[in-house]
Amino acid sequence: MNVANGLFIAATVLAALSQSTTLFIVARTLTGLAVAGNVLNPAIVGDMFVSEQRGSAMSLIQLAPLIGGAIGPAIAGAVAETMGWRQAMWMSVILATACELVFLTLFRETYKVAVLRRRAARLRRETGNTALRTVFDMDDTSKKRKVWEAMVRPFTVLAGSGVLQLLSVFGSVLFTYYYIMATTLPDILQSQYGLSAAASGSTLIFFSIGSTVSVMICNSTLDRIYIKLRDANKGNGQPEYRLPLVIIGGFTLPLVVAWYGWAAQCHASIAWLLLSVSVIGFCLMLGFLPLYAYVVDAFGLYAASAMTAVIVMRCLAGTFLPLATGLLVDRFGHGIGLSAIGVASLLLAPIPVLVLRYGAKWRQGSKYTRDE
């Protein structure tokens, strides 16, 4: 995490100082590489909280990037419009540096493998017994081999778990609606409603409002649902008990996206359009946030690798599906184009239903999710 934060700060400084488009693109690519460290956030929550408390913590930690993703463009748009884009970059540098100083000085390791290794190293120093090792260091694999295995582990975990493959596809398509909305909304507001670039960026706050309401609901109900289903199963908790809210989000979000598309197509009032944006945020978080909690619960020690696989799939979908949506919108308009994408994604909506019903059995086929 510290390495990723340092790379983010350095890459943002490079972007602020860049004098060519090529250098700027390279700097922003490095920034994108650095923020991949966020994949560890849900895994850290899994380290710190037991299953009965994990859902609430997970919902709160996912609220921050969504609020930042909506408020950030509004602030950056206003700063860029009045002071220039470089000042927006320097603001990011200052904020990121302040956060990293707090992180570096106050945060402590939570990953149990690293914690146990540090404990073993301390005991070796105190006792003089050089044979003391953790259970994770019993093999004779070389360090180079271990580094390679760590690098490819997300893909190995993804290839070795059919449940993760299904939910990664479902979650990536679900989250793509955020990118679709974020790329189409400014153009709609500027071309059809005459808003400025700064005003268009500020409207993403409505997405954050809907997301915040959804996160509050997840925060208050996710653990309650888990405990209720666990108690009904004679106290035997299962990761699948995180999925009821995912099912609701999976079936409602495509319908809301169609509403958003037809509101733009029919030139509905701006209030009606922005209401659909808020409901997109609500349904998106309802379907996506508990999915993170499921992955952390199901994969345990391999949660970070599993989350990496989910985010890689999400990034791929977020790159290519908006391009396909753009072609559909250009040819058929926002109403038909977004409705077609919604109908296609409805075909994936039964996935969490099937995982809720059969996931406990399916997980036994993978060594990464097999019950002990």
Q: Please state the overall shape, judged from the principal axes of the Cα atoms.
A: globular
Q: Which topology of the largest domain does CATH recognise?
A: Growth Hormone, Chain: A
CATH architectural group of the largest domain: Up-down Bundle
Helix % is over 70%
Question: How many structurally independent domains?
Answer: 2
Task: Please work out how many helical segments DSSP would assign.
Answer: 15
- How far apart the termini lie comes to 30 Å
What is the number of E strands?
0
In terms of DSSP E residues, the strand content is under 5%
Radius of gyration: 22 Å
Order of helices and strands: HHHHHHHHHHHHHHH
- Residue stretches low in confidence (pLDDT < 50, at least 5 long) are none
How would you describe this structure to a colleague?
The protein is mostly helical. The protein has 2 domains: 325 residues, MFS general substrate transporter like domains (Growth Hormone, Chain: A, Up-down Bundle); 28 residues, no CATH class. It is built from 15 helices and no strands. Helix 4 packs across helix 12, helix 7 crosses helix 13 and helix 13 packs antiparallel against helix 14.
